[in-house]
Amino acid sequence: MTWKELKEFCNGLPENVLGNKVIVWREYEAITDIEAETLKEDQYIGEDDPEGCYSLSDAGLELSDIDDMNLKKVYSVGDPILSENF
After folding, report:
1. Rounded distance, CA 81 to CA 74, Å?
2. What are φ and ψ of residue 62, in 5° steps?
3. Where do the DSSP E strands lie in 1-41?
4. Would you say 7 and 32 are in contact if contact means Cβ atoms under 8 Å apart?
5. How many other CB atoms sit within 10 Å of the CB of residue 79?
6. pTM as predicted
7. What three-state secondary structure class fits 73?
8. What is the pLDDT of residues 56-81, one digit of tens each?
9. Dihedral over alpha carbons 51, 53, 85, 76 (to 10 degrees)
10. Among 54, 81, 78, 77, residue whose Cα is nearest residue 66
11. Percentage of the chain lying above the pLDDT 90 cut
């Protein structure tokens, strides 16, 4: 789903449901504590770590480490995301 598709879906919802909680329904769970935000930093993934992405600051890395560690940028500053609010 793209953000455009999500916006079109939400715009088509009746007013009476717009105050309801957003739910991500997974196979074995329902995630109801969701927050929307825009990324404050670029997010990278390493060749040896396909499970998740991270910012350079979270990983304690510098811009010079990107090439040395074969990191690939997967999301950019300002990209919108939905995440579970832990």
Report:
1. 13
2. -115, 165
3. 24-25, 30-31, 34-38
4. no
5. 13
6. 0.79
7. strand
8. 999 999 999 999 999 999 999 999 99
9. -150
10. 54
11. 88
